[in-house]
Amino acid sequence: MSFQDLNLNTPLRNALEDLNFQKPTPIQEQAFAPIMSGKDVVGIAQTGTGKTFAYLLPMLRMLKYSTQKNPRILIMVPTRELVVQVVEEIEKLTAYINIRVAGIYGGVNINTQQQELMRGLDIVVATPRRLYDLVLRRAVQLKSIQRFVIDEVDVMLDLGFKFQVNNIIELLPANRQSIMFSATMTETVEQMISENFKSPEKISIAVSGTPLENIDQQNYLIPNFNTKANLLKHLLADKDIYKKILIFISDKRIADRLFESLGQKFPGEISLVHTGKSQNYRLKNVSDFDEGLSRIMIATDVMARGLDIEDVSQVVNFDTPNYPENYMHRIGRTGRAEKKGQALLFTTEAEMDSLKAIEELMKMEVPKVEIPAEVKISSELIPEERPREIEINNPNKSLEDGGAAFHEKKDKNKKVNLGGSYRREIAKKYKKPKTRGDKNANRRNKK
Ligand code: ADP
Ligand code: MG
Predict the structure, then answer these.
(1) Which of 128, 149, 296, 396 has its CA 20 to 30 A from that of 203?
(2) 81 lines ligand 1 (CB under 6 A)
């Protein structure tokens, strides 16, 4: 099938030609007619399969020129970065169409957005909370919305946006078309559908959990943060192979730590995005990485979901995610649009259960790779990895009372408490080798 087979118009065809897209992806092909029919539609397909255009193409095809003030299309996405990205995709597709579109998200001046909305527009792309604030300010009315899209609905619900999404839905006209896209189908997603959709047509492209075939996966069994950082420093030194690396970490404090640690070896080459950073910082870091100004980006899961960054050569799972679906989303950032990609997975002893869950979901084992001999195996633990002895020593102290001073003391105490005995405990746990040869012997003995 080619784009010629879809009922597109000349301006859209020309825009696609400029983009050099040869043919629609399966989800684009299969979602087109149902969306054109005006029915409610639910689309499930893996990351990187072109879901954005799957809803944009038919919606833009149906959108007629108008000067009316109230928007007719509302697209809701979970993060600010995704707002920016979807707006860009719309701009690409509407190079030859006169259309007014606005991206609405929190963390930046609300008055500017209010003014933009009040000038009148056709399409609003928004995160739910900021949009709702603007509705309350009467900057925008949603009574003319004809089509409503929730993109990345699974992330939206994971982030706890259900309440905000429902608030918005209540303001929409009942005779609207609702469209929803997700990479995974979970129970909460099902519930969302049954509460808000009218007998939707479901389009499902691949079983959620099927790994993309063009991603080469590798698993390192590795004891702790410092050893992981050593391994990364060793690998990333090869700039020919490691061209554009996206590193996932679930915890933002660990992300900060890694940023600092890698920054010593690769100054100026690293972007960092997590929810603790300001909006401007986040946008700049993502665009630096996207444009190749920084070779490495460290990101938490929430920040990176749905982001489409071209030509990521490697995805590094700095930790083994608790939810196997998150692994699928992470590795889906590479090998996009049928290019080859590589995904590294770092697993500690404590994360073995998570690894098993991932392998069960994919119905395959992630091939094991040995840590290269040049990499220093560290036994030094970072504070987050040390056991929380402080609570036992100070039973009356809660974590909340006391800010920095408390933490400082906690670290000091730990040093005293841990001493050699803790080292020995860890050494025992990992059967820490004295030399590389010992280590392999230990591995063999374990089996
Ligand atoms: P998803 O939302 O499913 O994760 P995206 O919509 O972000 O995927 O698309 C992934 C990438 O594929 C984007 O860079 C997009 O420009 C590209 N893409 C989309 N449709 C096509 C197509 N028909 N042919 C080639 N590339 C495409
Ligand atoms: Mg998407």
Answers:
(1) 128
(2) no
Ligand 2 centroid distance, CA of 46 (Å): 9
- Atom from ligand 1 closest to the CA of residue 27: 3
Query: Do 215-378 and 3-204 fall under one CATH topology?
Result: yes
Question: How many angstroms separate the CA atoms of 180 and 48, rounded?
Answer: 16
Ligand 1 within 6 A of CB of 308: yes
CATH topology of domain 215-378: Rossmann fold (3.40.50)
- Nearest-5° angle of CA 204, CA 90, CA 129? 80
CATH fourth-level superfamily of 3-204: P-loop containing nucleotide triphosphate hydrolases (3.40.50.300)
3-state secondary structure of 104: strand
- 77-102: buried (b, 16+ CB within 10 Å) or exposed (e) per residue? bbbbbbbbbbbebbeebbeebebbbb
> Residue 24: nearest ligand to its CA?
1
Distance 198 CA to ligand 2 centre (A): 23
Residue with tokens 């397909």: 45
| Spans of all domains in the chain | 3-204, 215-378, 412-446
- pLDDT in single tens digits along all 447 residues of the chain: 899 999 999 999 999 999 999 899 999 999 999 999 999 999 988 777 899 999 999 999 999 999 999 999 999 999 998 999 999 999 999 999 999 999 999 989 999 999 999 999 999 999 999 999 999 999 999 999 999 999 999 888 877 889 999 999 999 999 999 999 988 777 888 888 999 898 999 998 764 445 567 889 999 999 999 999 999 999 999 999 999 999 999 999 999 999 999 999 999 999 999 888 888 898 899 999 999 999 999 999 877 666 777 788 999 999 999 878 788 878 888 876 556 789 999 999 999 999 999 998 888 899 999 999 999 999 999 988 887 654 445 445 444 443 344 444 444 444 444 444 444 444 454 443 434 444 444 444 443
